[in-house]
Amino acid sequence: MNRGLILPSAGVCLILIAFAAFRGPQDLADVDARMTVAADDSTGKASSAPTLVGRQVCRECHAENFALHAQHGHASTFHLVSQTDLAETFDGQSFDAGEPYGTYHYHAEGEGRLSVSLPERFEQDRFPLQYALGSGHHAQTMLTLTTAVDGQTEGIEHRVTCYSDGRLALTPGHANKTPHDALEYFGDSSRGEPLQRCIYCHTTSAKIVGETIVDLVSSINCEKCHGPGSEHVRAARLNPTSPPPYSVGEPSWDTESEFQLCGDCHRLPRSISEKEIRDYPKLLARFQPVGLLRSRCYLESDRQLKCTTCHNPHQTIHAIERSEHEQHCITCHQPEVAEHVACPVSPTTGCIECHMPAVELDEGLQFHDHYIRVHEPTLRSSQAGG
């Protein structure tokens, strides 16, 4: 899509241009089926390099983790808008984004497709909304790939997001923005490595080619974290009673390996400015490894505390009771153990609220602060009350 085409004087309908050019990826089930064939071990020969086999193949031996993962936010981080109910949710709605944008109007285009218009600025021209990022546990934000006038692929993160309670509101981080050109009236622009990283962290496999995504395996599935599984599957099928160790089961896997894996998308200090690390603004609550790595719980555990110390990576946090999380804290902070440091205020309950409180960010989004520490005002208040 050429940026010039969305100027009001052009009189060109955006939705027709983009949808005519858009070539959707295979349905995920078809991709899994294709990958299953690639994992065929009938010859017993290893391929030159491991390839993706698809989560349905992993299910053969890992049914319990497969079922848990299906309820996890990782299982639904990236979709075509047409594969969601967003067209139904947005259709006929309008959202006043204020100056300098105006009021967005949303239109279902059939077959689950969705577009948005800004009639105050661009008359009846419509802008297509192609991809939905986010599981919906917090929110879903839409992204469209376009071609800039210099021929480079550009991603437009839409200005409006659908939150988990069904309301429409500004996308996090989009307040007080100024559009630099016509397309940015519809959302923030990114290209190159930032755009690729955005899609990388929401998919198992994806490659941007022009205005489309090829080799797409949507969302964060088994092989995003464990790596391509064809060789593991081949070896396991040849010796089903003693399958080989794989990925996190390898002897070389350690705490640092885990931080590098999780932090690849959930962020590590190297992707945060020195000033932010020093000042620790509340936005960093979104980037859990950054906080955890500066916590005394990590530093005084011989740097052995890691994400999976407290989290089952296959299980959604929404299925875990607060008391279960507190048991992880108490394991290392038992009042009756002399070597442990127990909380003087409440040694067996209330750990999360006091030491990992929920931090509210844009539009009511909340993330628990993983910089585990004593919050002095909270401690003084609790002591005064008790």
From TrEMBL:
Residues 194-227 form the Cytochrome c-552/4 domain. InterPro entries: Cyt_c-552/4, Multihaem_cyt_sf, Multiheme_Cytochr_ET. The keyword S-adenosyl-L-methionine does not apply. Pfam families: Cytochrome_C554. Residues 1-20 form the signal peptide. Keywords: Signal. This is Cytochrome c-552/4 domain-containing protein. It comes from Stieleria magnilauensis. The lineage of its organism: Bacteria, Pseudomonadati, Planctomycetota, Planctomycetia, Pirellulales.
